[in-house]
């Protein structure tokens, strides 16, 4: 079956990710909230996005900014209450914007009632988490937490160890226990009954652990990962979840799956897999890491292209790609993959061009549409993220750390820490970028006077207006469903490709243009230096017209291109209207 034989709204959608803590604060406590987001729903509508993925707003002690949930059926006071949430849902739905909620079920907070009861060994709760008895001096195995240090903590109350693949305040649920699975499925039904349109599933490929919890290979990256990433029963659990709760293709289910290969992804996605809509793979954002993210090097463009092309081809017929270059866990994409100084604006547009012209569903992370950049973190006191703080504290605690190593730690934190993505959304050039009237929970990026929504909306040449055009381009079936072909794979600075959509298969006639297939040609110069690109002989340019570019460029392509620094061009065969009105009930 060809993937365009099976159209569904989320394949044609652009999803906007809101990190609520940093989006907009309505009550002056320095923390973003639901009312702040409700006040900005028109902004999202103006951008043209089709869905919002809301990072966790559930009740939480906030050890990991809401990824430590103490009540799945309540909204955290910092964000508002259930009435606010319902108003948000309705305001979005009134504008045909769908709402995707975060599903965090690998772990809970240690303050969740289940954990409290489990620690007291109350009835069936005793087995809701991974508990191991033994000497308080020696953890049950050598697994490492993703946030650094051992993945085990000793609980004095129960006198046993419990597993936490993340922070010690995030104990892992034991998915081998059918009662745990039923609790999770019930909770998911509860949210679906409240009218949500899907879930983004936090580290869903980590829910199954190897039976017996054996030691991991100490020389293989994150110790123990082979026993908890894509573990032995994960497809059984995810498949059960889909059968029990998500057996409606209209519900978007996007799994966050660190460390998956294309082959792994196929097992999660699509009708021949477990039935998820798509996954977030990490290969294109981690390929330049050495041992861990703090060792990230300079991403090489040919390697980046090779990886993205592999995913484009790999999921072309029996799967679906998600498209992202940053999110709340990654540095700002314009700082990591673009050029955030002189060419900030151009490179932000170029990177957006990439994510909106590949096959798959684009995810836009808040502020990306302004070209927001990484922020300077002058000292430990400026940091908020538990992962970065653990990393810095480990360096401080190590008596062997010398001045040079401190400088490396600082550089790594500035380049890679998650707080880069979490600085407040920049709305205006007023104090605190218009994010709050109070003291923001994390510092505002000092470039807010130049980079902000108000200014971007007033400037027709801004990244924001370019993004509006990118989002609108996704109305073309060609860009959603077309076949992908990479050109010039080894070119060190150019990323060029075609997209092609054969009309047969869609059941539609060839357009009035007489062009039998729809075609796109995308050429992107990932460099501060100009570059020349000669089209391969087998790529036709007849019928192609300029659809979008971030500079003044010819309306029709020649066979040789001279591209300026970070220049991006999209040429398309004309739209004869076939793509409009494709799902009138869904748009
Ligand atoms: C992935 C989430 O995106 C991240 O923010 C969180 O810290 C971990 N999972 C643990 O829930």
UniProtKB/TrEMBL annotation:
It comes from the Archaea. One of its GO terms (molecular function) is hydrolase activity, hydrolyzing O-glycosyl compounds. Keywords: Glycosidase, Hydrolase. One of its GO terms (biological process) is carbohydrate catabolic process. Residues 17-422 form the Glycosyl hydrolase family 13 catalytic domain. SUPFAM superfamilies: (Trans)glycosidases (SSF51445), Glycosyl hydrolase domain (SSF51011). The keyword Zinc does not apply. CDD domains: AmyAc_SI_OligoGlu_DGase. PANTHER family: ALPHA-AMYLASE FAMILY MEMBER (PTHR10357), OLIGO-1,6-GLUCOSIDASE 1 (PTHR10357:SF184). Belongs to the glycosyl hydrolase 13 family. This is Alpha-glucosidase. It comes from Halosimplex aquaticum.
């Amino acid at each position: 079956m060809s993937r365009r034989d099976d159209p569904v709204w989320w394949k044609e959608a652009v999803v906007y990710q809101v990190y609520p803590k940093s989006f907009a604060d309505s009550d002056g406590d320095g923390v973003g909230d639901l009312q702040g987001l409700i006040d900005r729903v028109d902004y999202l509508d103006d951008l043209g996005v089709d869905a919002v993925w809301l990072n966790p707003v559930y009740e939480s002690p906030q050890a990991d900014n809401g990824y430590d949930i103490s009540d799945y059926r309540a909204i955290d006071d910092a964000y508002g209450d259930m009435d606010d949430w319902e108003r948000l849902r309705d305001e979005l739905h009134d504008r045909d914007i769908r709402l995707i909620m975060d599903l965090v079920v690998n772990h809970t907070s240690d303050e969740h009632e289940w954990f409290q009861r489990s620690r007291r060994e109350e009835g069936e709760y005793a087995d809701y988490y991974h508990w191991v008895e033994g000497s308080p001096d020696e953890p049950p195995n050598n697994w490492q937490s993703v946030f650094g240090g051992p993945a085990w903590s000793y609980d004095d109350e129960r006198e046993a160890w419990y597993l936490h693949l993340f922070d010690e305040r995030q104990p892992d649920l034991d998915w081998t226990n059918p009662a745990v699975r039923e609790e999770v499925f019930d909770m998911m039904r509860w949210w679906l009954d409240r009218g949500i349109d899907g879930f983004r599933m936090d580290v869903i490929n980590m829910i199954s652990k190897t039976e017996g919890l054996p030691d991991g290979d100490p020389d293989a990256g994150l110790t123990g990962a082979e026993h908890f990433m894509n573990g032995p029963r994960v497809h059984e659990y995810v498949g059960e979840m889909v059968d029990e709760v998500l057996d409606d293709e209209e519900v978007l289910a996007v799994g966050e799956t660190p460390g998956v290969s294309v082959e792994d992804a196929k097992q999660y996605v699509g009708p021949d897999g477990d039935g998820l809509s798509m996954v977030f793979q990490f290969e294109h954002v981690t390929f330049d890491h050495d041992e861990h993210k703090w060792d990230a090097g300079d991403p090489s463009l040919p390697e980046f292209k090779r990886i993205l092309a592999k995913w484009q081809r790999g999921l072309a017929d029996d799967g679906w790609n998600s498209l992202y270059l940053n999110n709340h866990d990654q540095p700002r994409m314009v700082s990591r993959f673009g050029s955030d100084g002189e060419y900030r604006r151009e490179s932000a547009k170029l990177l957006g061009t990439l994510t909106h012209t590949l096959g798959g569903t684009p995810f836009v992370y808040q502020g990306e549409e302004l070209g927001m950049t990484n922020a300077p973190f002058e000292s430990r006191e400026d940091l908020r993220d538990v992962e970065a703080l653990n990393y810095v504290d480990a360096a401080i605690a190590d008596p062997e750390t010398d001045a040079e190593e401190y400088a490396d730690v600082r550089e790594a934190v500035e380049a890679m820490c998650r707080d880069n993505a979490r600085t407040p959304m920049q709305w205006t050039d007023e104090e605190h970028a218009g994010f709050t009237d109070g003291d923001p929970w994390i510092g505002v990026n000092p470039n807010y006077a130049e980079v902000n929504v108000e200014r971007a909306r007033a400037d027709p040449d801004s990244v924001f207006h370019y993004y509006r055009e990118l989002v609108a381009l996704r109305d073309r079936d060609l860009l959603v469903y077309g076949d992908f072909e990479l050109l010039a794979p080894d070119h060190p600075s150019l990323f060029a490709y075609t997209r092609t959509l054969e009309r047969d298969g869609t059941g539609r006639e060839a357009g009035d243009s007489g062009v039998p297939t729809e075609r796109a040609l995308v050429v992107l110069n990932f460099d501060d230096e100009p570059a020349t690109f000669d089209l391969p002989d087998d790529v036709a340019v007849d019928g192609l017209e300029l659809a979008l570019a971030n500079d003044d460029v010819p309306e029709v392509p020649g066979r040789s291109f001279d591209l300026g620094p970070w220049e991006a061009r999209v040429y398309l065969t004309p739209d004869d209207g076939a793509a409009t009105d494709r799902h009138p009930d869904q748009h």
